[in-house]
Design goal:
Number of helices: 1
Number of domains: 2
Radius of gyration: 23 Å
GO molecular function, one term: MHC class II protein binding
InterPro entries: Ig-like_dom, Ig-like_dom_sf, Ig-like_fold
Organism: Nicator chloris
Protein name: LAG3 protein
GO biological process, one term: T cell activation
Order of helices and strands: EHEEEEEEEEEEEE
Helix content: under 10%
Shape: elongated
CATH superfamily of the largest domain: Immunoglobulins
Length: 158
């Protein structure tokens, strides 16, 4: 896993034996064991790393009005009960939510208003809830709805 894995040497003397993985990949999911030997004592702990992946088809950035499929999958072993998608491009109460039995969301004609932060939330039969957030980019025209722009002679027009 090198060079994606590191220990923070500066925190070892303080008792922090955290393992850092950047970037996390799907194949990193699984059980990890840490062993610390101090004098004649051996301490160990086990940590399970679960991984959630969000994939876009076609990949980011998405072109306006082209079919978009967004999939959300997790390494969690229980049965998926529900997948919900939350879109909140603007801070405040403007938000959209979509729920389904699969982890895939279809947007038939993505528009500039679909751009921004999306969160998928997976709910499993064992009551576990897992979520991931990603930023969707849309390539398109975000200008005036009227294609006629007036400008004073001698000034600049955008």
């Amino acid at each position: 896993m090198k060079p994606r894995v590191s220990l923070q040497d500066s925190t070892l003397r303080k008792g922090n034996f955290s393992l850092r993985i950047v970037p996390v990949r799907s194949e990193d999911a699984g059980l990890y064991e840490a062993q610390v030997k101090y004098s004649s004592e051996v301490h160990s702990c086990h940590v399970e790393l679960g991984v959630i992946t969000v994939t876009l088809s076609p990949p980011n950035p998405v072109i306006e009005n082209e079919l978009l499929l967004i999939s959300c999958n997790s390494s969690h072993r229980a049965s998926l009960v529900e997948a919900c998608w939350f879109h909140n491009q603007h801070p405040g109460p403007i938000s959209r939510t979509f729920c389904s039995l699969s982890g895939t969301l279809s947007i038939l004609h993505p528009a500039m208003s679909d751009e921004g932060s999306w969160r998928c939330q997976l709910r499993y039969s064992d009551k576990e809830i897992i979520s991931a957030t990603f930023n969707l980019q849309i390539l398109g025209f975000d200008g005036p709805s009227n294609p006629v722009v007036y400008a004073a002679a001698g000034s600049a027009a955008d």
